[in-house]
Amino acid sequence: MADKGLPVPEGYAPKDEDSLPAYLAGAPAVAARLGGAQADWRVREVGDGNLNLVFIVDGPAGGVAVKQALPYVRLVGESWPLPLSRAHFEQMALATQAKHAPGLVPEVLHYDETLALIVMELLQPHIIMRQGMIKAIRYPGFVEAITDFMARTLFHTSDLALPADEKKAAIAAFCGNTALCKITEDLIFTEPYMIAENNRWTTPQLDGIAHEFREDGALKVAVSRLKLKFLSEAQALLHGDLHTGSVMVTESDTRVIDPEFAFYGPMGFDIGAVIANLLINYFSQDGHAKPGDPREDYQTWVLEAVEGCWNEFRRKFLALWRDRAAGDAYPHILFTAGAGPEALRAEQEVYMDRLFADSIGFAAAKMIRRILGLAHNIDLEWIEDPGARALCETRCLRLARDLMVNTENYRSIEAVTAAARKARDAY
Amino acid sequence: MADKGLPVPEGYAPKDEDSLPAYLAGAPAVAARLGGAQADWRVREVGDGNLNLVFIVDGPAGGVAVKQALPYVRLVGESWPLPLSRAHFEQMALATQAKHAPGLVPEVLHYDETLALIVMELLQPHIIMRQGMIKAIRYPGFVEAITDFMARTLFHTSDLALPADEKKAAIAAFCGNTALCKITEDLIFTEPYMIAENNRWTTPQLDGIAHEFREDGALKVAVSRLKLKFLSEAQALLHGDLHTGSVMVTESDTRVIDPEFAFYGPMGFDIGAVIANLLINYFSQDGHAKPGDPREDYQTWVLEAVEGCWNEFRRKFLALWRDRAAGDAYPHILFTAGAGPEALRAEQEVYMDRLFADSIGFAAAKMIRRILGLAHNIDLEWIEDPGARALCETRCLRLARDLMVNTENYRSIEAVTAAARKARDAY
User: Fold this and answer.
1) Domain that includes residue A87, residue range
2) Is A203 exposed, middle or buried (0-12, 13-18, 19+ CB in 10 A)?
3) Which residues in chain B (57-116) have CB-CB distances under 8 A to chain A?
4) CA–CA dist B196, A185 (Å, integer)
5) How do the residues of chain A divide into helix, strand and coil, expressed in percent and rounded to 5?
């Protein structure tokens, strides 16, 4: 396997169920977590990721998850090479996130740069949030946790919290993660708006709207403006792929996983990812509802979560700005006396409004790519009847197009959720 | 000397007039340029820079300029350490600029990383443009050359011209130039708006306006918004210090020198630097005019140059965008057919309008720092009568304040030059 995809360093080889225990036995923190002896450990390759090998290892004392990068995209194969360095960027991001948002990411027990392999605590009985949401399970702690995660990781890696030299060093440290960024640039910001081999959609039902979007000058300009922001605005360290498939939950615990797309980019990209994936789930519920399993109450909960995600993020981010502003931007010393505090407060509102506009723009881009691009969401994919699925998808696309092109009409998250309800009624 | 300021690498020592010829004799390209033998070379330390050692060396066949960084700010001394690495960033920037804007920067003949020493062609009979402008000398080729320089260097290092991975690598390569960026962050965007030891101004005449600016909430918010842009928007490789003291001219040749502040930042910062320094000169002319040496015609020329700088830059930048767009932003393929070309043309106008707003904001910041901050311009400093100087400075400050706070009122460069004329009449 190691000879496929990109060249690999001396010493790299993909692990398998047979070779993994002996390797883990050499990592003291891992062996301690598993307990007992090597012969007692049970290894399963769960392979539920698109990009990497993933093993779950259980021992007498506990379990670990092992994630190893391959020199290509697992889902596609050696024809789509992808550098092993994504593991390097992922463990750096996990370390930064653990520092700023403790308890909200998995603990890293061991990292091997040569093997591109990360061993983490096993999250159990957590499940992928997306899977729970498809079953209409509510996560009462989600809004609190995800807004903590976003507010803390974005604020503390921004110019509001960091001196410029520290931030520039962090930017440089993530500048090499271009192959992963390129996936986003192509699959989110470009291909859904053109004829591209990767694209797929519910056909023939969405053929018309897919064609319409490819011909929509205003939409293509809007998504290109977002792409430019993604390419050039190094506001904070992003997770980079913050959808509900990157969140593991129980009813009382929430963890964010898989930050291999991490880089310094525009904050709205992470916030938009959360909002988009909740809205996709909202629209998908009509395809899952059955006479004995109505979903309207759950849809209400989902839209409340959308509102909470922005409103709580905003509140927490502003609180951090008030209490922890140690960065070089908006220097404290200019705003302590006289007209300063009042002027800064007004500017903070403007700043948050601009971030809100970015967020719903990026949310729209993510809603569209999940319906017209390469990677789809099981929220919609698991709706078996194509007609029902296409209806949910059409509502989602119509809302997304308006969010992206007429962003300035949306002045609050409540305006967004109201428009989501309206789109559900209108189509 | 080498033990002052920051630690220096093994092998670093400042050169002097005695030690330089033997060193240069070992650099074949330099020896060839000078001609003759080492004994024929005449060395002068000209020391007209604020930061570095500068030597001019003349030989039988030609001359060279030698610039060597010191581990501290030359103007201030060892109490203000500054890393030698600025020479590394300068020669990288010179190489990039020479590639994109050939003939508009000095040719580099030799670079020594350990000595932080660059040997360049000697520009003669060029003089520093600022000195010529104080004498009311017109430079008919300036607008053409400086707009070529800005359009080409900014466009070709931006996401409009580069694939994302190349641009990210270039960003990372300049991320280490933080000490020089910090000078800008402090001296331009922060200190003029607070009580700071570095500040000085024409006193007591400007005491009132300096106090007023320190209390001006809207102004402090506006300059902080620009600072955030400077800190976080990696749009293109900037010269970073593009004032008329960084331009060497004859009537027919224009060269941009001294890009040691180079980094990836917002394009408007370079454009604004040019506009600001022309406007400062415009206002300063009233302090230099005498009965036998009226300056009104020259002031007309200066404002025409201001207009030309923006309008020609805009035209050339858009032409490059139309003809040479190979970057990942606004991908060509989305805008070739149907509504695409028209939509892109409209978006290019929006893009340029936003860049114009950035440019006049940054111009305003630079006008203010040259009057209330640490580093002043001889355009104004050489006006001997403090009352006359203060009047010129007040006009300049009043215009700058309005440009920065009410940027959206200025929709064209002609609106800016009209406001400059008005400020000259009003105060």
Assistant:
1) 20-121
2) exposed
3) none
4) 44
5) 55, 10, 35
Contact B220 A175 (CB under 8 A): no
Is cis: bond before A102, omega within 30 of 0? no
What DSSP string runs through B229-274?
Answer: HHHHB--EEE-S--SGGGEEE-SS-EEE---TT-EEE-THHHHHHH
B336 contact A CB<8A: no
Q: What share of chain B is helix, strand, coil (3-state, %, to 5)?
A: 55, 10, 35
Any idea which residue has 């660059």 for tokens? Answer: B118
- The pLDDT of B121-125, averaged and rounded, is 96
B234, B344, B346 member nearest A232 (Cβ): B234
**Is residue A81 domain-shared with residue A155, that is, in the same domain?**
no
Question: Using one digit for the tens of pLDDT, what is the confidence trace for A56-98?
Answer: 999 999 999 999 999 998 888 888 899 999 999 999 999 999 9
Q: What is the pLDDT of residue B427?
A: 84
Q: A213 — contact with chain B (CB < 8 Å)? A: no
Q: Are residues A204 and A337 in the same domain?
A: yes
Question: Do residue A217 and residue A306 come from a single domain?
Answer: yes
Do B61 and B157 sit in the same domain of this protein? no
Cβ contact, residue pair B338, A231, below 8 Å:
no
The 3-state DSSP class for residue A106 equals coil
Ramachandran assignment for A389, one of left (phi > 0), alpha (psi -120 to 50 degrees), beta (any other): alpha
What percentage of chain A carries pLDDT values higher than 70? 99
Which of chain B's residues have a Cβ under 8 Å away from the Cβ of A339? Answer: 215-218
- Do the chains contact at B224 and A333, CB–CB below 8 Å? no
Q: Which pLDDT does position A49 carry in this prediction?
A: 66
Percent over 90 (pLDDT), chain B: 93
**Cα distance between residue A373 and residue A371, in whole Å:** 6
Contacts of A412 (CB under 8 A, 6+ apart): A356
CA distances from B284 to A231, A268, B237 (A): 41, 45, 31
For chain B, how long is the longest CA-to-CA vector? 70
> Does the structure show a pLDDT above 90 at A337?
no
Question: Could you say which DSSP state residue B103 is in?
Answer: T
User: Which of B213, B328, B368 is best to mutate for the A interface (most A CBs within 10 A)?
Assistant: B328
Q: Are A110 and A140 in a shared domain?
A: no
Q: Is residue A285 assigned to a domain?
A: yes
Tell me whether residues A194 and B333 touch, CB distance under 8 A.
yes
Asked if B93 and B134 sit in the same domain, the reply is no
Closest CA to B84 of B120, B111, B48: B111
Whether residue A400 sits in one domain with residue A298: yes
Total count of domains within chain B:
2
Give the H/E segment covering residue B68. Answer: strand B63-69
Nearest CA-CA distance, residue A234 and chain B, Å: 5
pLDDT range class, residue A1, cuts 50, 70, 90 = very low
How far is A325 from B236, CA to CA, in rounded Å?
28
Residue in chain A closest to B230 (alpha carbons) equals A329
Q: How long is chain A? A: 427
Provide ipTM, 2 decimals: 0.96
Last residue of a domain, one of A85, A104, A121: A121
Look over chain A and give the mean of its residue pLDDT values, rounded to a whole number.
96
When mean pLDDT is compared across A208-222, B63-77, B108-122, B349-363, the lowest value belongs to: B63-77
First to last CA, chain B: 48
- List of chain B residues whose C-beta atoms are within 8 Å of the C-beta of residue A340: 217, 220
Claim to verify: residue A322 and residue A416 sit in the same structural domain = yes
pLDDT exceeds 70 at position B380:
yes
Least confident of A371-375, A423-427, B318-322: A423-427
Q: Mean pLDDT throughout A392-403? A: 98
Flag if A342 and B217 touch (Cβ within 8 Å).
Answer: yes
Confidence of residue A143 (pLDDT cuts 50, 70, 90): very high
